[in-house]
Amino acid sequence: MNKKKPVRLRPYYKTRYAYEKLRVCKHCRSFTVLWEDKCASCGKHTLIPVMDQARINAKRSMQNERLVALLITLAAVLFSQTFLQIVLCLLGGLALTVLLWWFQRRMLETETRRQLDKLLRSSERRIIEGIYMNLTTASAAIKDDEQLGYEILREIATIVHNDRIRLQQIMLLQSFILRKDMELELDSLMLDRFEPALAEYIGELAKVKRELIKNKAIRYVLLHEREILRMKGGPGIMAAVAGAAVRMKKYVDTYPDFILRYARQLPKERYLRLYQLVRRNPNQSWNGLREEVSAIYNEKYRWDPEFQNWE
Q1: Which of 235, 287, 244, 281 is nearest to 262 (CA)?
Q2: What pTM was estimated for this model as a whole?
């Protein structure tokens, strides 16, 4: 088995919308979701965010509209038969052009959104080709630098949502030494089927970054509890998840039977958290969890000074 490696992952910049990760080459119109400086297709340093390209398209469209308005004004002036008609057409045309310009400024963001939608719809094939090229880059990177390969897959996963990429990310994460200060994720990596590597990853996160253990992860280990218990270290995974769950009362309310099954395997620090929750909520039994917590206390911690403040 390969020894886990210490890594320092580059910062991951989350965006409100997935498309904001896309960049397009102004020269060859290729797309990418990576942070590269130059286009992988044409080699030019002409990559810009798709929103910037959409804004350029919107301004160009508005500029064309103003040009049409000026051409109409010019045509009206040329066909005028008197000096008064020339003046009226010129002033009227200029006034309408200024009004159009004012209106366009107010509608710039709306037009940019429309141009963005048009750009994405008309570029579906090129976007797919660009992401396929990114996947090829990721495959090549994994062979030489697993950290870089994971970082590339993490960017691609913003756009492409499938279990193959999720599993690749999980396998790579399992080759790293995980730390609390690392920018890790879980909900976006959840699979529908049972996968031992995912169960192991959940178990590690339950120890080093338990705030990531939420409903999805708890439901996953409950659904696959039998398979996990057959794994080497499986009971430890289940106990670690139960220990992470007791950090919030809502999880104790929702999964009391699960926590009851693994209460005796909780480390002292997690059991103390559960004990505190039980003492703060004297009117709740949680399907026998209160009685089990009391029994554990009497057997193991009755004389422990850390518990004396909760007597």
Answers
A1: 235
A2: 0.84
